[in-house]
């Protein structure tokens, strides 16, 4: 088996090198046969990667412990789904998955029907192959997935219990799909530069890719947060840890990119900016991988100090230098026929503001993340900035973004007038102020949440108003019923209304993000029968008991919960003791409502069954998850192939003989 | 002034605002990351400063007082320097012999580290050690039982 595995990896490496060379030769000689051979090699690389990956899955699923990787991350008693998920529990397996996605995307582009007879294809494929080669060098020489042990252990080490969670199945896969997805628009951008085309063709072609990649990246982050919230027992979903920041930074730049491309498509402006943003986004995904795997920064999501990080750093440097070289050499072309801003108050400029805030936010996160490294270089010791720093900086940035989001959709292209502003914003503004006033009336005193909720309502309302106007305008002509008008309005402009749905989702998430900052906590050790009170909850600790789940033992506390005198039922925080893992593991009990989460951790117990609990009330956390569902629905709506406005953009770049 | 310049000016304002935000937020939220040995040998030097450090946990030093919710324990480094830590919260997961513990807090004049943050580095999800030769699950089970 290991021969097949290793063979497919080295063969894939050889074939990707061959494909890259033959593509470049084909382009140079303008020989279609060479390019076709390259495409076939690309397909072969993908097939080989699939073989390697499915072989690994079989090995994991059947517990072939003579393989070091299988023995390191699985054991026989592990449920099958986690045996398979162990594919991405370690360095080499996760990089194999990464390579699988990358080669899959490459084939999708190389054999794309929409790109038939398009001279960009060999270039794009070559750039993606350059990336593939890097990953195969790592897989072939640095962390080999199919390494054998010189003995066959009876049992594997098992999968870290923290990773035995549904989050483990979803989080890495979605995150990688997002990360790798940005390689495609990046390759398109560089290709457009190399071919000296400055129109928006590549933007239009990659629009769906980018939205899908962005959606996966968002999901990856949110699922990671959800996992941390339920799994780690810290009571939070985001801690501004370097590893979390690593995947948040490309999200910010990708969000900026999704917006600024619209200005280039419509007005031919911001060409250099857009290309810089997609280069930056792609570079940040590699930088993130470097941070995660190098151990240069102290993170609680621990990753061993392996030398694999330095390879990513070298690769990052190569990518950046190559991209900047291409960008600089075509800079004069991009500067030509660049549009002008026609008014300070226009959609273009408000998009630019949104971009600057997002990129500023990226820089802030970057600054906070690498501050220890910078300070160590400058002053000789590491100075860390913690959660307060990020909260202090990112809260105003979030509010600024919501404000721009509120006004952006209603500002006209080119130029807005005062009347136009009044018509659009007066009603939502008044209602939002009333809502903010109500919050004060309900006893909210802190300025930040009042301001935040005022702004969020303003944003949600301007979006509703915009949709309402659209419906009315449509009904004037068609006399349709409201729901039909709404439906037809939306499907005729999927991108726009998909975007609005996504904004809505972000607004709902913001409700949760702002609210969850006002959590309350108590920690107590109580004997059986005693109660703990937090806010209007009364928790009665009834007993401690033990049950068996497969090979694992579960100790749980039975707690009766009342809220404001009303019976809510029982919750059972647990500690799991694994047969194959030394450390017990906390299983949080959460009672969720839209208003707040009651979050209970069983921390420990004494011999007389006194037990120690950490109990938190986290307001509005559910809205973070609800908002992300809405966001996904919006993304799917935006990319759904409908019959309207779904025209393949026409290529106007230079003609070549090969495609 | 052209429209582009105006937009550029407005844009620069945003950038400057974010930079000011950064510079203003950095000093108040920063802590010094020092090796454990520094915290043990020079506690005065870091008086009243938020300090981050890390070390290996000594399991037998753990003193947990459930009713008060007070946790005392010692960390050591490779050279045998020992730091006493006080923490008025519950123990984190994976709190066992030899695990790497990350601390954030203040060193008091008595040399005790008053931690506001204690985290164990989650056991490496990447790069596990090689399984030991002659691994016997029964032995594992036994040690497991003693731990409970």
> C-alpha Rg of chain A, in Å?
27 Å
CATH fold node name of one domain in chain B: OB fold (Dihydrolipoamide Acetyltransferase, E2P)
* Share in helix of chain B: 25-40%
Low-pLDDT residue intervals, each spanning 5 or more residues of chain A: none
Give the averaged pLDDT of chain B, no decimals: 78
Output the helix-strand order of chain B: HEHEEEEEH
Enumerate the strands of the largest sheet of chain B in spatial order, edge to edge or round the barrel. 2-3-4-6-5
Low-confidence stretches of chain B: 123-148
Q: How many individual domains of chain A?
A: 4
The named CATH superfamily of one domain in chain B: Nucleic acid-binding proteins
Write the layout of secondary structure elements.
The complex is a heterodimer of chains A (659) and B (148).
Chain A: H1 2-29, H2 32-61, H3 68-73, H4 80-85, H5 91-110, H6 120-142, H7 166-181, H8 183-194, H9 201-231, H10 242-267, H11 271-294, H12 308-329, H13 331-335, H14 347-379, E1 382-385, H15 387-407, H16 418-441, H17 447-478, H18 482-492, H19 494-515, E2 520-526, E3 531-534, E4 537-549, E5 552-563, E6 566-571, E7 574-577, E8 585-587, E9 589-592, E10 596-605, E11 611-619, H20 622-639
Helix pairs in contact in A: 1-2, 1-6, 2-5, 5-6, 5-7, 6-8, 7-9, 8-9, 8-11, 9-10, 9-20, 10-11, 10-14, 11-12, 14-15, 15-17, 16-17, 17-18, 17-19, 19-20
Chain B: H1 3-28, E1 30-33, H2 36-41, E2 51-65, E3 70-76, E4 82-87, E5 100-107, E6 113-120, H3 137-147
Parallel strand pairs in B: 1-2, 4-6
Antiparallel strand pairs in B: 2-3, 2-5, 3-4, 5-6
Protein described:
The complex is a heterodimer of chains A (659) and B (148). In chain A, the strands form 2 sheets. In chain A, strands 3, 4, 5, 6, 7 and 8 form a 6-stranded antiparallel β-sheet that branches. Chain A is an alpha+beta fold and 659 residues long. In chain A, a hairpin with a 3-residue loop joins strand 9 (589-592) and strand 10. The radius of gyration of chain A is 27 Å and the shape is globular. Chain A has 20 helices and 11 strands. Chain B is an alpha/beta fold. Chain B has a domain at 32-123: Nucleic acid-binding proteins (OB fold (Dihydrolipoamide Acetyltransferase, E2P)). Chain B is 29% helix and 32% strand. Chain B has a 5-stranded mixed beta barrel.
């Amino acid at each position: 088996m290991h021969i097949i595995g290793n063979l497919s990896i080295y063969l894939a490496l050889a074939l990707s090198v061959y494909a890259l060379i033959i593509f470049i030769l084909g382009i140079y000689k303008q020989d279609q046969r060479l390019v076709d051979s390259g495409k076939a090699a690309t397909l072969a690389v993908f097939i080989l990667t699939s073989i390697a990956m499915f072989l690994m899955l079989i090995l994991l699923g059947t517990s072939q412990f003579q393989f070091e990787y299988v023995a390191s991350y699985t054991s026989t008693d592990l449920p099958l789904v986690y045996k398979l998920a162990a594919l991405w529990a370690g360095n080499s397996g996760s990089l194999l998955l990464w390579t699988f996605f990358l080669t899959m995307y490459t084939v999708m582009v190389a054999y794309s029907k929409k790109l038939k007879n398009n001279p960009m294809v060999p270039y794009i494929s070559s750039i993606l192959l350059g990336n593939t080669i890097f990953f195969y060098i790592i897989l072939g020489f640095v962390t080999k997935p199919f390494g054998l042990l010189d003995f066959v252990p009876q049992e594997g080490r098992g999968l870290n219990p923290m990773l035995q969670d549904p989050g483990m199945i979803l989080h890495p896969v979605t995150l990688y799909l997002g990360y790798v997805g940005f390689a495609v628009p990046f390759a398109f951008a560089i290709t457009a530069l190399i071919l000296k085309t400055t129109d928006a063709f590549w933007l239009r072609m990659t629009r769906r890719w980018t939205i899908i990649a962005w959606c996966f990246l968002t999901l990856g982050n949110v699922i990671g947060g959800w996992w941390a919230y339920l799994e780690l027992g810290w009571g939070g979903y985001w801690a501004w840890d370097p590893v979390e920041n690593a995947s948040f930074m490309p999200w910010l730049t990708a969000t900026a990119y999704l917006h600024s491309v619209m200005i280039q498509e419509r007005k031919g402006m911001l060409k250099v900016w857009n290309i810089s943003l997609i280069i930056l986004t792609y570079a940040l995904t590699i930088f993130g991988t470097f941070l995660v795997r190098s151990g240069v920064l102290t993170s609680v999501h621990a990753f061993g100090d392996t030398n694999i990080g330095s390879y990513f750093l070298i690769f990052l440097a190569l990518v950046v230098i190559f991209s900047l070289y291409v960008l600089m050499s075509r800079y004069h072309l991009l500067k030509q026929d660049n549009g002008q801003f026609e008014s300070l108050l226009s959609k273009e400029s408000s998009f630019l503001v949104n971009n600057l805030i997002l990129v500023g936010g990226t820089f802030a996160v970057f600054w906070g993340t690498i501050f220890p490294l910078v300070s160590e270089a400058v002053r000789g010791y590491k100075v860390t900035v913690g959660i307060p720093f990020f909260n202090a900086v990112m809260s105003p940035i979030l509010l600024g973004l919501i404000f721009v989001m509120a006004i952006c959709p209603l500002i006209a292209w080119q130029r807005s007038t005062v009347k136009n502003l009044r018509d659009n914003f007066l009603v939502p503004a008044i209602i939002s102020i009333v809502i903010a006033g109500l919050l004060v009336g309900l006893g909210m005193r802190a300025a930040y949440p009042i301001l935040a909720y005022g702004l969020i309502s303003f944003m949600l309302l301007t979006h509703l108003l915009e949709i309402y106007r659209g419906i009315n305008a449509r009904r004037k002509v068609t006399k349709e019923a409201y729901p039909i008008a709404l439906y037809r309005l939306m499907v005729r402009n999927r991108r726009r209304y998909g975007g609005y749905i996504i904004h809505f989702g972000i607004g709902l998430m913001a409700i949760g993000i702002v609210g969850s900052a006002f959590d309350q906590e108590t920690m107590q050790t109580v004997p059986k029968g005693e109660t703990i009170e937090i806010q209007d909850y009364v928790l009665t600790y009834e007993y401690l008991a033990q049950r068996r789940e497969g090979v694992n033992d579960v100790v749980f506390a039975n707690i009766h919960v009342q809220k404001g005198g009303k019976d809510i039922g029982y919750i059972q925080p647990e500690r799991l003791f694994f047969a194959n893992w030394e450390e017990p593991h906390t299983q949080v009990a959460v009672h969720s409502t839209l208003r707040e989460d009651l979050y209970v951790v069983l921390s420990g117990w004494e011999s007389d069954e006194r037990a120690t609990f950490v109990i938190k009330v986290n307001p509005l956390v559910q809205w973070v998850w609800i908002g992300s569902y809405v966001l996904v629905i919006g993304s799917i709506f935006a990319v759904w192939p409908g019959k309207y406005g779904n025209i393949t953009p026409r290529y106007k770049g230079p003609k070549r003989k090969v495609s | 002034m052209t429209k582009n310049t105006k937009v550029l000016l407005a844009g620069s304002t945003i950038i400057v605002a974010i930079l000011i935000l950064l510079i203003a937020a950095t000093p108040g939220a920063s802590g010094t990351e020092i090796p454990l040995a520094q915290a043990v040998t020079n506690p005065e030097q870091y008086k009243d400063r938020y300090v981050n450090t890390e070390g290996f946990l000594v399991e037998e030093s753990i003193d947990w007082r459930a009713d008060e919710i007070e946790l005392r324990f010692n960390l050591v480094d490779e050279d045998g320097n020992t730091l006493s830590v006080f923490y008025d919260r519950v123990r984190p997961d994976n709190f066992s012999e030899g695990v790497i513990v990350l601390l954030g807090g203040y060193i008091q004049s008595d040399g005790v580290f008053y931690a506001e943050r204690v985290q164990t580095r989650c056991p490496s999800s990447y790069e596990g050690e090689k399984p030991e030769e002659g691994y016997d699950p029964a032995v594992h089970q036994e040690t497991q039982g003693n731990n409970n």
